[in-house]
Amino acid sequence: MTRGSSTARAVGIVTLVVAGLLGSAYVLGRSLVPDQTPRHSTGATTSADGPYYADQPSAGKPGATPSASASAGPVETGQDGSGRDAGGDNLFGAHATTGTPRLALTFDDGPDPRYTPQVLALLREYDVHATFCVVGENAQNHPDLVQSIVNEGHTLCNHSWHHDVGLGARSADAIRSDLLRTNAAIRAAVPNAPIVWYRQPGGAWTYPVVSVARQLGMTPLHWSVDPSDWDLPGASKITATVVSQAQPGSVVLLHDAGGDRQGTVDALRRILPDLTARFELEALPTDPT
Asked: What is the pTM of this model?
């Protein structure tokens, strides 16, 4: 064998060895790197509490708190659409039914000069008395409407001064001040009208707010039928929910202020003929037990 051929053979052997080592290193490296095969985007990620879709508002996640941006309704005072179950464990003794076979309609967040007169006219047409949960600042701004509510035989309910959903988390003194201020605004319009009910905005009941309300002679009032009219679902959906869920003893939650309530007014035109044919409707009494 010549010297040149020996050198060529040696180079070939070295080349094969190096190639083998490089191949082994590549295989080993690939085994240590996560699979990076491209996937088609589904618009979803997975979290510890279940699937969460990127095009959902944060309120769509289990356990999330509804936000104003998640609501289809206007961001205004008076949105009670809490979605809370009236039969739940967090009412701290608040009444969710009438306690009788009679059904009660309640209207929150007013009075409002555009919608409250329409509601009053419809109730008058069907000879129905209801309960109005009024916001203090609205009572102060529209005392004539508070007078109309009482003069037509409806009863009143304190709904806090400024529809403060977080009121129940404040100190007892702060809660008492808010409720007394609201009562004072109501009594400035109707000095002798009883105010024996209190409804916490958002249904966000706490022991302190229930306790203070009772100390002031007011009975906490929740609801058992909630068509979420604050979220502007339309008159047909409001009507269907109330008509299908109403039963003896129901307390129906509706709104005559706090945003565009024309859908509620239009629904009421359909609701009243049905309910008056099936139930006896009453304003909540001024001497609750």
From this structure: 0.73
